[in-house]
């Protein structure tokens, strides 16, 4: 367990220091805002959709290390995927961080995202980890209003 905790911390720190796809996306055709008032996390997600495919994705914003690392990992994961594939991963990720799905024993498509399974031990952090995913979900659904985790 200590190895997993160490890996978890390393990955969070790495993504927090050097977030992937952290920029305004000039070619975006969808923009979605998300807030987690509980922690103060806020982000803007940019998507360039090519039909049903997420051709490019980026984010900007500020928040705690977990929200930023999770958003960074989310963008890296869904780039190039179809909206339907991204929704499957969103559902699996959401169930994992809420402790409803154990990635060690159940089939999933989460890849390196399983490192974030550790947040299920910290209920207050679940919303930090899932904010970017809820925001993606709303963007794919074409929702106009900002997303709030509350
Ligand atoms: Zn947070």
Overview of the molecule:
- This protein is an alpha+beta fold and 150 residues long.
- It has helices spanning 2-17, 65-78, 83-97, 123-140; strands spanning 30-36, 41-50, 53-62, 147-148.
- It has a 4-stranded mixed β-sheet, with helices on one face.
- It is globular and about 40 Å long.
- The termini are far apart.
- Zinc ion binds at residues 36, 39, 41, 63-64, 66-67, 128.
Task: Sum this structure up briefly.
The protein is α+β, with helices and mostly antiparallel strands.
Derived from helix and strand composition plus strand pairing, the structural class reads alpha+beta
Report the uncertain regions: none
Q: What separation lies between the terminal Cα atoms?
A: 31 Å
The count of DSSP E runs of length 2 or more, i.e. the number of strands, is: 4
Number of helices: 4
Strand content: 15-25%
CATH architecture label: Alpha-Beta Complex
Which CATH class?
Alpha Beta
Overall pLDDT metric? 93
- The fold-level CATH name is Sufe protein. Chain: A
Name the shape in a single word.
Answer: globular
Main sheet: which strands, in order across?
3-2-1-4
Order of SSEs, N→C?
HEEEHHHE
**Rg (C-alpha, Å):** 14 Å
Helix content: 40-55%
Number of self-contained structural domains: 1
Bound molecules: zinc ion
Largest sheet: 4 strands, mixed
